[in-house]
Amino acid sequence: MAEFNRLWECGPLFAQAEHFKLGTDCVLLADFAVISGRAKGIDLGCASGAIGLLMMTENKKISMTGLEILESAANLAEENMSVNNLSDRSEIICGDIRDHRKLFKSGSFDFAVSNPPYYSSASGYVSPKEDKAGARSEISCSLDDICSAASYLCRTGGSFFMVYKPERLAEALRVMSEKGLEPKRLRLVCSDVSKPPSLVLLEAKRGGKPGLKIEPSLFLNDSDGSESEEYRRIYHR
Q: Which domain covers residue 128, as residue numbers?
């Protein structure tokens, strides 16, 4: 039986899948993906459903669909929604992102989010465990697959939010543009002012006009090593 724990005091309950631990990247992406008003979104590769859970907890007007290829993770995502009484605003589908045209109609969603695998399958060591490998390397979907799906699934003017590695930023911007997703917002995430960025948060709009806003960097720690005020806000501390 899944072990549920509160993400913060009086916050939502959440159980983690073995190889889909709730990481800082998911939490920061959920905070970055600001949606105003009533909207319908999809999490591409939702794993245990953390991003959708966090976003729906913050915004009571949105609904989320989670698409996940691994049945065990999809089942746990359903449990996470159910235990938080979010089943009426959520749907979890066990399916392949590459089959998005078979699963949904074009423009079905107002926004899409994704915390995709960061590393190319040719970049080095790949875990022999399929679920762990798929979470970290482009075994079952590539950056091209993710952006193709987001472009197809978002309505014109809809937003696509993604967290990625800075070393692949140029590639991400290029692929987004090629798929009709115009990059509009970019924010770098750094451990502190002395460290290079470890993550990049991106928002693109389907059919958007050119114009990229680079936001102030997010620092997780202050110069004395303590958690920054913004980090504490995001984590409800």
A: 5-234
Q: Residue 23 contacts by C-beta under 8 Å, 6 or more apart in sequence?
A: none
Q: Pick the closest to residue 136 from 117, 153, 116 (CA basis).
A: 117
Counted domains in the chain: 1
C-alpha of 162 from chain center:
6
User: pTM of whole model > 0.90?
Assistant: yes
182-220: b or e for each residue (b if 16 or more CB lie within 10 Å)?
A: bbbbbbbbbeeeeeebebbbbbbbbebeeeeeeeeebbb
Question: Do β-strands 13-14 and 5-6 pair in parallel, antiparallel, or remain unpaired?
Answer: antiparallel
What's the CATH number where 184 sits? Answer: 3.40.50.150
Q: In this structure, what token pair is assigned to residue 129?
A: 């465990």
pLDDT digits (tens, 9 = 90+) for 39-61: 999 999 999 999 999 999 999 99
Q: What one-letter code names the amino acid at 12?
A: P
Kindly tell me if the per-residue pLDDT of 17 is higher than 70. yes
Residue-wise DSSP of the chain: ----EESSTT--EE--BTTB---HHHHHHHHH----SSEEEEEET-TTTHHHHHHHHH-TTEEEEEEES-HHHHHHHHHHHHHTT-GGGEEEEE--GGGHHHHS-TT-EEEEEE----B-TTSS---SSHHHHHHHBSSS--HHHHHHHHHHHEEEEEEEEEEE-GGGHHHHHHHHHHTTEEEEEEEEEESSTTS-EEEEEEEEEETPPS--EEPPPEESB-TTSSBPHHHHHHTT-
